[in-house]
Design goal:
alpha+beta, three-stranded antiparallel β-sheet, 11 strands
């Protein structure tokens, strides 16, 4: 029994970050079923294979003991419902919608259940080499709240950085609570506080949270994430290049005195860099960052680095003009002065209505110049 439990502790769930922050509505049981089968995917799988497990094992996922497991008809209703559940993922500005699972089969003679993931899930579960999150399955198996499971995954992604700000409306979509606990006080009590308690007790991370307000209205949540006191060891950071990169570049920026920057920008650099440099992005972004910080005269390093990465530039010296404040040309100032003087003289001779029309005409001409510029 202990050896089986130890083996389960070592099952690893790996999902793309797009899938981590996708929108879907699964019960706690449905999430555990999905995540259990995800942990069965092999690192080198090119295609989804049909995964078969004993029905006894499946029933344990549902919380039943060996002596009180339900009949096949009841189990079939659970998987039938699961077959209808849809996940929504935003990729490159496009919204994709598809099912989690495409096939389920019960073999009553052998006492097994077989499941196969939908083929559209491939980019988010197979052959992941970048922008993914991994964790031990055991972390979520003892969580009772469906919101605790979702929050654990979301915060696990941001654990290397240590904090994340999420708009309340986005958070509701991520955890599947768009139509529940509409009063923030209820959302705080039923989602945030329960998740905080469960994650602290059962997982390898813990969190505090701060409310981000607009006036008196809560519009977002700032999560402060720390390693938990779990008996489960942390996964090595080598499981994700992104995690190691976050840690190193964050340290470099702070060593140069850049303490107050939006840490989401690091993820944006990776996304932008992937467009030009693919796997080389880590090396190039790190090089740009170091060169930028060592180059005198750059007043906005974060903005400069973002410009360089966004445009695929690597050489700092050739792009010093990237961050600049363009001055209005002298001739435009003279033009404004002359026009203003003309208007002043004209106003003495024209009626107030005619002067107002002339003033509007001048403003339109200046606005046209700005657009052309």
């Amino acid at each position: 029994m202990k050896s089986k439990e130890k083996k389960t502790n070592n099952f690893i769930v790996t999902k793309s970050n797009n899938l981590i922050e996708a929108h879907y509505n699964l019960s706690a049981i449905e999430q555990k079923i999905i995540l259990y089968f995800v942990s069965k995917i092999q690192k080198d799988d090119d295609e989804f294979k049909k995964i078969t497990i004993p029905v006894i094992e499946f029933c344990k996922l549902l919380g039943y003991s060996e002596n009180s497991r339900p009949n096949y008809k009841y189990l079939a209703t659970i998987t039938k419902k699961l077959l209808s559940k849809v996940v929504e993922i935003n990729v490159d500005g496009k919204l994709r919608q598809f099912q989690w699972v495409s096939f389920v089969e019960y073999n009553t003679g052998e006492g097994t259940i077989t499941l196969e993931f939908h083929r559209e899930m491939k980019p988010f579960l197979l052959k992941l080499k970048k922008e993914f999150t991994s964790y031990r399955l055991k972390n979520i198996m003892t969580l009772n709240s469906l919101y605790s499971i979702r929050l654990y995954e979301i915060l696990k992604k941001w654990q290397p950085i240590g904090k994340i700000d999420i708009k309340l409306s986005d958070l509701r979509k991520m955890v599947g609570a768009t139509d529940k606990y509409l009063e923030y006080s209820n959302f705080k009590k039923k989602v945030l506080n329960i998740a905080k308690k469960e994650l602290q007790k059962n997982t390898d991370l813990t969190f505090e949270f701060e409310e981000l307000k607009e006036g008196k209205k809560v519009i977002g949540i700032r999560f402060l994430i720390k390693n938990g006191n779990s008996f489960l060891p942390q996964l090595p950071e080598e499981n994700s290049h992104d995690q190691a990169f976050y840690k190193e570049i964050k340290t470099i920026l702070k060593n140069y005195g850049l303490l107050d920057f939006d840490e989401h920008i690091i993820e944006r650099w990776l996304a932008l860099g992937d467009k030009y440099w693919k796997e080389k992005k880590y090396e190039y972004i790190m090089s740009i960052t170091k060169n930028c910080l060592e180059t005198p005269g750059i007043e906005n390093p974060i903005g400069y680095i973002t410009y360089m990465v966004k445009n695929g530039h690597i050489n700092i010296q050739n792009n010093k003009k990237a961050i600049r404040n363009e001055k209005v040309p002298d001739w435009l100032d003279e033009h404004k002065s002359l026009e203003a003087e003309k208007l002043s003289h004209a106003q003495k001779e024209l009626t107030s209505k005619e002067a107002e029309a002339l003033k509007k005409d001048l403003e339109k001409r200046l606005e046209k110049y700005k657009k052309i510029k």
